[in-house]
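Researcher: Let's do a round of design. I'm pasting the structure tokens now; please hold your answer until I've finished.
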């Protein structure tokens, strides 16, 4: 799997979770995914920011919960931007809000916390020294993020205006869902990994799949009362084993392992309440 060093404008680039007891979360996720951790906060700074690594490469992070944060922890997604200030201004113009105005994160970069018009938080990241996840889409690493909302049309307008995304419907046999596409992203990926488009086509991927940066799923059918939110999915080599391991480590299985087109997945909750999905890729034609 090719390692990453930065992302194009408008592509999700990082995920982290802020926890009441970050050390306990480190033990859970380290046991589940085999992550090793390094606290990147200065020794005299309050709190912790444990960056998880695979083969010494950054994959995600666990931090201390900040004062005023929601009581239940969750996983946050960051989108790479050239200017956090410009992204914040676009969010306001598109009818969203800015939950945290742009600010510098030491020398790592500059960020802002936005919310779409339905209230789903999304972070933007203007890179400094930290250039996003270096390992993705392999077992134990971040696979993708998805927006769950009850206003699909409004989400299309907002994220299109802020990031240039397009939402294309896709039939995966499990009700309505959409691919968030960033036109031109496939060209970037093909340049890094020649032959990617052909491999995707041979595996039955729909047209335009090489441009996909995230997913868009409506809440109305499955959880109409849930607040709009972004969720994260991590790749695993065995979804059933991941569910069993999470339980052993004190987590909860919210949705037992099940099959869907191209994947077998399970929805899990860590011991402090953050929800995430663990997914195994199942190539077409395999058992």
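Researcher: That's everything. Go ahead.
Model: Designed sequence:
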């Amino acid at each position: 799997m090719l390692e990453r060093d930065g992302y194009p404008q408008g592509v999700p680039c990082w995920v982290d979770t802020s926890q009441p007891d970050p050390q306990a979360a480190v033990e859970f996720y380290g046991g589940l995914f085999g992550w090793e951790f390094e606290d990147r906060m200065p020794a005299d700074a309050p709190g912790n920011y444990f960056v998880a690594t695979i083969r010494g490469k950054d994959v995600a992070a666990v931090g201390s919960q900040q004062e005023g944060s929601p009581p239940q922890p969750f996983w946050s997604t960051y989108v790479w931007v050239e200017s956090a200030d410009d992204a914040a201004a676009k969010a306001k113009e598109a009818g969203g809000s800015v939950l945290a105005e742009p600010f510098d994160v030491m020398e790592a970069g500059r960020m802002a916390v936005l919310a779409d018009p339905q209230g789903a938080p999304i972070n933007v990241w203007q890179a400094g020294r930290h250039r996003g996840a270096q390992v993705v889409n392999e077992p134990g690493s971040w696979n993708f993020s998805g927006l769950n909302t009850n206003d699909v049309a409004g989400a299309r307008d907002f994220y299109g205006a802020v990031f240039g995304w397009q939402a294309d419907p896709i039939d995966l046999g499990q009700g309505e869902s959409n691919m968030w596409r960033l036109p031109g992203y496939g060209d970037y990926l093909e340049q890094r990994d020649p032959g990617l488009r052909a491999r995707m086509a041979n595996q039955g991927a729909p047209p335009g799949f090489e441009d996909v940066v995230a997913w868009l799923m409506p809440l109305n059918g499955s959880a109409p009362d849930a607040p709009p939110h972004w969720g994260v999915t991590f790749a695993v080599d065995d979804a059933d084993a991941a569910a069993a391991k999470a339980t052993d480590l004190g987590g909860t299985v919210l949705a037992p392992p099940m099959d869907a087109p191209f994947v077998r997945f399970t929805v899990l909750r860590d011991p402090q309440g953050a929800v995430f999905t663990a997914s195994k890729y199942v190539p077409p034609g395999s058992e």
